[in-house]
Amino acid sequence: MTRRDDKALSHAPASTEVHPLRRFTDARVALGRAGTSLPTRAHLDFLHDHARARDAVWAAPDLDGLHRRLESAGLPVVRLRSCAPDRAVYLRRPDLGRRLADEDAERLRGLATPDGLGGERLRVGIVVADGLSAMAIDVNAAPVTIGLARGLCGQGVDLAPVALVEQGRVAIGDAIGEALGLALVIVLIGERPGLSAADSLGCYVTWAPRPGTPDSARSCISNIRLGGLVPEQAVACIADLARDIWRARVSGVALAAAIAQRLE
C-alpha cells in the first residue's frame, strides 16, 4: 500500500455498520480516526465539551434570576446556604454541602407545621440546589419547579416555600425537611456533567426526610434537559412518582418493593 493510499484510509469515515448509531446518541461513537488518533474535529469537540463541563461545575447559577421567576409565578421562596462557605470547599467537602447552615435551620423552624406526616393535607417541599451544574439550574429549574408546584397544589397538598440552596448536595433536603416538618421533599439539583451533557437536572424524592436518611430511601429521576427528559415530561413523571410515594408512604428501594407486591 502506498503512503497516499494509507493516508486516505486513515481519514476514512467509520463503517456504515457503526455510524448510524450516532443518530440515536450523543455518546462518542463512530468518530473516525486519523492514523492512530482522533480526527481534528472530534478532538476539538472533546476539548470543547470538557471545558463546558468544568464551567458547569465551577460557575454559580443565577439564583437571583430564578428567585424572581418563581415569585412572579406566585411561589413563595426562601434562600438558604449549606455549611460550605465557598465553591472550592464545597467540591472538596461533600459532607458540608449536605448540612444546612445553623442560622438557616433556625430560621426554617419558624415556618414548620407540627403534623407534616399526619394531617389531611400532606406537607410537601421543593428544594432547588445548585449541585454540580449551574447550567442545569439556569436552563431547567424554573420550568420544572413552576410546573411541579402548580401540579402539587392542584392535588391538594400543603406546599412549603420553595427553598433555593447555595452549595447544596442532595441530602440537604433532609435537613430542610426536618426543619419544616415535611412529609415529602423533592430536591431538584444540577447533576455532575458528562462530556455529552452539561445541563442535566436531577430529581430526588424522599418520604419522611430526616438527617441520616440513606440514599437507598430516595427515588430518583435524572437527565432532565432538552436533550433527555424534557421539563414538561419530567413534571408529569415526578408528579406520578410523588403519588406512588404518598400511597405507599415509603420511597427508594422500599417503594419499588411495595409496588412489586401490589402488582403480584
TrEMBL record:
Q: What is its main location?
A: other
Reaction(s) this enzyme catalyzes, per UniProt: ethanolamine = acetaldehyde + NH4(+)
Supply the alphabetized keyword list. Answer: Bacterial microcompartment, Cobalamin, Cobalt, Lyase
Q: What class of enzyme is it?
A: lyase
- Cofactor note text: Binds between the large and small subunits.
Q: In which pathway does this enzyme or protein participate?
A: Amine and polyamine degradation; ethanolamine degradation
The record's subcellular locations are: Bacterial microcompartment
Pfam families according to UniProt: EutC
**What does this protein do, in the record's words?**
Catalyzes the deamination of various vicinal amino-alcohols to oxo compounds. Allows this organism to utilize ethanolamine as the sole source of nitrogen and carbon in the presence of external vitamin B12.
Q: What is the name of the protein in this document?
A: Ethanolamine ammonia-lyase small subunit
Phylogenetic classification of the source organism: Bacteria, Pseudomonadati, Pseudomonadota, Alphaproteobacteria, Rhodospirillales
Q: Which gene encodes it?
A: eutC
